[in-house]
User: What shape does this take?
Amino acid sequence: MDSLATRLSRTAVWTGDGVELRDVEVPALADGDLLVRVRLATICGSDLHTVTGRRSAACPSVLGHEAVGVVEAVGGDSADVSVGDRIVWSVTVACGRCERCRAGRTAKCELVRKVGHEPFEGDWALSGSYAEHIVLPAGTAVVRVPDTVADAVAAPAACATATVMATLEAAGPLLRRRVLICGAGMLGVTAAAACAEAGARVRIADLYPSRVDVAHRFGGVGDAGGTVDVVLDFSGSAEAIAQGLARLDIGGVLVLAGSVAPGPALAVDPEAVVRRHLTITGVHNYEPRHLQQAVDFLARTGAVFPWADVVSPPVELDELHHVLAVPPTGMLRSSVAP
Assistant: This one.
């Protein structure tokens, strides 16, 4: 792929003070690497936290880990994808060899690298999706996107939707179960739709009534209190988690997915956990199977839920700084079309 070495890709580099557009050289591809032309990237809440200083991250770096794109070049042989395929890709890139990978926990690989989280001045400059191109190293999990799934629907699969699939797996069977979802952002609303499709009775709570209103279109109803069987927390609020834990019925399950920053400690009564047969577990990122499940879920429910309606129309790359903020009212994701 030496012919690609002199190509330049317009790239938005986060400098800590703002976004700087640079023309970045596209490197020669190693065996198994993919060069992908980014069609659309959505703005995840974690990137907003980086920009506002709530989350530490490599700097400078190319942010963005929710995206959909088209394969432009393949390094060596690849049995997984071909040039021209429209794909989404995993946030994490695992070594596949360490104990964690061998145990099926590739998201926690001892040598994990992450799309949109790597230092720009390292050996993977084109590592984020806020750019015309991204290089996906060999071993990155990718999934082809059906033609029936629009870019705005597919892009969140790479983070929000796949994480929800992992969260539901941790929760166990949901048919006829009473589910309380804490947090009505993109993950919470997606979880409401997934739980509803699984046959659960879904309640959703958020500090902002307007976000709960959005969730009504995705199978959730406002929370009216009472006992529940499953609590899925995407809020990261210790208060919300404690309240949800107290409401769990016998055999209840609490899945924590939103606590990704330091916060107050949570008081847990061990006797209550034992006597009520409770399960408390956590989910952070996801496995390759969850990315496939995410794309399948979005394809299956495209005519049921208005996925595209919660993603704002894309801006161009040079306008990225304008959407690195809270999405417009009624929207759960802003987007950029590099």
About this structure: Residues 2-158+306-336 form a domain with the Quinone Oxidoreductase; Chain A, domain 1 fold (CATH 3.90.180.10).
